[in-house]
Amino acid sequence: MARKQAKSHRFFGSRTSRNPTPNVPSEQSQGPSQPSAEAPPIPVSANTDRKLFSRMGHLYHRWKQTRSDPPATEITDAIVGSQVNAAQQAMDDLKPIPKVFQTPIGLVGRADAAVTMIQTADSILQPLKLFNSFVRTISNVHPYVQFALVILTAASQLLIDQANLDSEVFGLLNTVKDVYEFLMEKDTIENIDSMKGTLSKISQEMSATALFVVKYCKKQNFFVRIGNNFISDPQTVARAHIKNLGDLMQQYRDRTMRDIQINMYHVLEDLNLEGMTYAGGAGLNTTKVCLDGTRTEMLKDITDWIASRDVNVPRILWLHGQAGRGKSAIAHTIGSWIQDTGAPGACFCFARDRQSERREEKILTTIARDLADRDPAFRRALSNIVSNNLALKTTCDVVQQWKRFIVEPLSNISGEIVGNVVVIIDALDESGPDTSRTHILRLLTSADAAGLPPNFRILLTSRPLPDIVRAMAAAAHVKATSLDDVPWELAERDIKLFVSKGLEGLPDIGMEEVQNIVNKSDGLFEWARVACEFIRPNRAGATPKENYDNLMALEAEEGRTLLDTTYFTILEIGIPRTGTRFKRYRSVMCQVVMTLEPLPMAALNCIREIFPNKQDHYDTNLILEFMSPVLGGVVDRSSPVRPLHASFYDFLMDPLRSGVYFIDTSDAKDLAFATLQIVHDNLQFNICDLESSYLANSEVSDLSERINKKISHHLSYSCQFWAQHVEKTGFDLELAGQVRDIVGSDKFLFWMEILSLLGRVGKGVSALACVRRWLLKGNSDYEDTLRLAEDGIKFIENFISPMSCSTPHLYVSGLPFIPSNTLLSAVVMPKLHCSARIHVGGMKTWPVEQLWLQGHTFAVTSIGFSPDGKRIVSGSKDKTMRVWDVEGGVQIGSPLQGHTEDITSVGFSPDGKRIVSGSEDKTVRVWDVEGGVQIGSPLQGHTWHVTSVGFSSDGKRIVSGSKDKTVRVWNVEGGVQIGSPLEGHTSEVTSVGFSPDGKRIVSGSWDKTVRVWDGGVQIGSPLQGHTEYVTSVGFSPDGKRIVSGSGDKTVRVWNVEGGMQIGHLLEGHTRDVTSAASSPDMEKIASATQHRNVGIWDAPSYQDGISHQLDLVASTSYSGFATSSPADGVKGHPICFSPHPSHALPDSDQLVHGVGLNDSMLVQPAKLQPDGWIRGPRGELLLWIPPALRNPFYSIWTTLVIPRGCVELDLSQMVHGREWWKCFKAGV
Gene3D superfamilies in the record, alphabetically (predicted)? Predict the structure, then answer.
């Protein structure tokens, strides 16, 4: 509680304003003048002690006489003094406070007193308003304090704007008032720097309090969690906040630091964000923060930018500078302040040694999840967006991430966040090659970023690489700040403090030596850090003074910077240039540099012990102990071994810079052998002893502890990256044998088990793709291994959903449905026992629809293969194009955007470097594939919607068709039309294409015909046969055939010369075919319908004209069935997906245990859900059904199917729940 005795109050004047106009805060100088927003009149409460303002004025004038600030602050002092005097006069004019407020009351007051409280709600909030006005005048404080005050101001403003005073929260708001009065007391402000830790806790608690009050005042029903208990009584939560605020004020008065737990009493809602892609380890690292007392000006400038209320303030601040300037230290300092004060924000860091994780694809999903963890309102808004949308949760499209995960939630929770949201993106330059950040840069410099909400800030740090400089220089909403431009005297002061602290206590190192080091640093913090490490006694036979003398003798050599020279010297001192130690250096550092994820020393040693050459079996510490100045994880062995700064990586990998200490990473044979052997020797069935198949991995409470206990660092690493190391090695028979031992045995399943536990099932596809490419380099003796790798890829693609959700279902739901004619089935099925079986309708080969590519938000209208068959481009009514990786089934980069209406047609150029698109906006556009940008201006001429486009074989011409009934040809380079339009169709043209030799053009139309053109004239008669409009046409690679799709739901093949249809029509689709195209080798056909999906199909045989592959798509229609009660004769709770009672699930009581006999859930205790899961009455995971087998599927109530052909399951031998582990006999 605030103390009532008379006190003086100290207020600091701003030292930045030079504006002589009274009552205009200094912040106004940074943007357009907005006095009403920035300097509102000071409303003063009658409830506030009149002596408060007298004490403030007295303190202000006394402080002014004793301080030693520069004269430049005198004008601001006058403003502060006038504000104090005005406030005091306002107090004198107020009426006396009602007595009910002179003595704090309990949490729940009497009814009559409550009425009085509600009527005078504004008076209790007046100290908050006063605080908001005066806090702007406080200066000469630590930037950390300034940051905490910003949060306190935001919390008070939220309460002022939204709090409704009633009897339930009056006691809490009364305590809030006391806190803000306390914060304006003399002793509080005089000790504000020394008690900044407690102040940050007060700001964090006040932020939580404000959110609680606002939530409560909206009168929403809610539960909260305190510890392990669920509380519905808001009074309990309010009491906890009152106690914490009181304890923190007392702690501040006592000048002590106690561990007071700050709890965010979040409203409990069903907010499941599981499945959202997340980049682990990319967050805040508090070991990187600035040394206290350094970078104060820069930190203050950034804090001012964050706190600014100017609606025109740039939303993005780009902090750049050469390597070693301290960019990351500043970023992590701001991030730690955000965390300490309870401000809403997130920190995402790129790292040179984490590029294999492709963090650029996870950046905004990770930031969104972090923001959701920090703020309950954001979490609720995000959950509403991603709920039941797995494709959106896992998208790597950063544009979609930006709009759906960041902008949309923020717009939905306006007024529910305390303070400005701050997102930090550190070290963007370390994302990888330029292409890794192309879409991020385009996003940050877009109009969408310029129009971010006024309470959103992005702090971006990077080196000034050319691609980043080009992007940022053109963006008006980006404020660029260079650390290279920091005045020398400030850099000198900060580095001097840093070096003094780093060398404190070393003999013979005084202020003169420190100053010499500072002078030599040239403003580089990284060099100063390395210098301190160099001087400290870290090697035998040398004193710190001798190390210092050696350091001072260094000079930048030709071709090397001083930092490179220092790196070279550190290596030279610890590692001689010849002999055993030098060979060990190259081996150890090659291992460190080539690991695709940093590992602690113990894990490095475990891997090294398996290296094929026994001479390499030694402790890595023999080398690493000499490299602590440049490597982390050497002193603290629990941390990963990694360069302390990215510049050391660059130094090692450049032979011109590192000379004899250059590390060659061209051969990964040692790592390939070791990781393969570790995987082979350490895999086992049910490695984490999971008890029940009913639970998702996320529901196993101690799963992380089990993983840490059972899956070591080196085993986890080996499972994730063995295949990548194999691919970087030349083909080797011994290695190939090890690969066969894994993919050709049950070890493949145990490997997948670990990937499932680690949440990395998707890595299995990329790993086996590496294996496949590597085996193709070898000989034919490993064709079976190659087939197993291909089967493994298809197994993961088809069963990634259950494996990612629940590890036991790798066995329970994956193995039973493996097609019987596959090689993988022959390897693993003999070991499967007591499992579900398919009685009717099983698969003999892998489903023809190998992949479903999902991401478009509206119907897919057009698709096309790249010339090498590895990529697909798709166009959609969502006005975007997307490029897909065929093998991995994932989107590449962000959508191509520019068309203003629905996209109708897309296609690759013959060299695969360009994409052409047509749209209902009447234009044709050309795109650069790698850059993801439009080339030149749109091609204009059509008078109605463009419906179809295509490149000629030489890539120099484009053909387009339109609803204006014409076909036009364009010159790509000149962007102009060639000749006159081709006319003849009697209705709108729907599809066009060039022949492979570029001499002919084919077109399809709403008039149900296909036509062929040569030299601007039609050849022969129209090709007729379709009974509805033609939607898609295209030549075969040999130019002798044409493939057409139609609204009659069929695909047809035509002979060009004869003008006749080949074979029978290809039937199967249940919706209009919107597009059809053949792959370059004619082995695949891709087709799209109005389902928003793209299907990839094995090409049919054109000799007989029958496409049995398409029958699987046709099976989406339901067969008729009659219903009755469950089959008779089944005891207990019958769960049966077959007409035969003997096929019922055994031990079904286990599934329904605890459900009341009269519970409605027992009416249908197990049901096939839309996501493919058969779940129990409380959501238990019983079995997952692949998409190809779901329709038609025998229901638990079905007794008759007309016609026969429904998928039926035999569950009579199936173990489940606590018995699931009996389904697999390892080692058989």
Answer: P-loop containing nucleotide triphosphate hydrolases, YVTN repeat-like/Quinoprotein amine dehydrogenase
